[in-house]
Amino acid sequence: CSSAPETKSTDHRDPYESSNRKAFAFNMALDTHVVEPAAKTYQNTIPKTGQRAIENHLDWTGLPATTLNSTLQGRYENAGVAFLHFAVNGLTLGLADLTEDPKAVNSQDFGQTLAHLNVPEGNFLMVPFLGPNTGRSLTGKVADTMTNPMSFLKAGDAVQTIQSLRPTVAAVSSRSKMSEALDDIKYNSLDPYARTRSLYYQSRAGRINAVVGKPNDNQTNDEQFESFFEDPS
């Protein structure tokens, strides 16, 4: 599915392109045989209200990470709002948004915190199951997972079941929401790998620039593209 030479890097930020393309091929095969069919079934069988409840829950589980990272970045107002939303919506395990303005919270991750601390971005990495990353963003995902209390919450059987299913449900839900854009990349691009890499850098640049205070010139309408590859924490 690629027209570019596998032994030569087509982007200076991607010195491991040959192995990255192999990981990308694995991810595309996984999508074709597992994630895409599951997403279509989810889209066709789960009512819109049910899908919205699942999306609400997934957003809710990310609020502790946003609270922590906003604090580390000195964005105390956002940290406070995120904590408040987490506490209030915890009454429904996040399935229903009880706040007046669910968009009041600006999602923050540890990769953005590292950028705020001027940690270098690192090379482009295509990771099996997780998709596109840079060295910095991948480190951030690991840190977010390890520090998010939702990852090691000890509660009743129902909550534990929800927690164990969360990564799978998140992947299927995101694939469903992004089906049109991802299918266009997958089936209509001359080089899906290169386009995926380009869109990742553009969407990630928007999030990083918002943290470090640079002009947001690189932000695109494909911002949701990155969220499909986020590892829920």
How does this structure look, described?
The two termini are 32 Å apart. Helix content is 62%, strand content 3%. Mean pLDDT is 85; it is low at 1-6 and 215-224. It is built from 10 helices and 2 strands; from the N terminus they run αααααββααααα. Strand 1 and strand 2 form a beta hairpin.
Q: How large is the share of residues in beta strands?
A: under 5%
Q: Largest sheet, if any? A: 2 strands, antiparallel
Class by SSE composition: mainly alpha
H and E string: HHHHHEEHHHHH
Topology:
Blueprint: H1 17-45, H2 48-61, H3 63-72, H4 76-89, H5 110-116, E1 124-127, E2 131-134, H6 135-147, H7 157-177, H8 179-188, H9 192-212, H10 224-228
Antiparallel strand pairs: 1-2
How do you describe this structure in short?
By secondary structure, this protein is mainly α.
Features:
233 residues; mainly alpha; two-stranded antiparallel sheet; globular
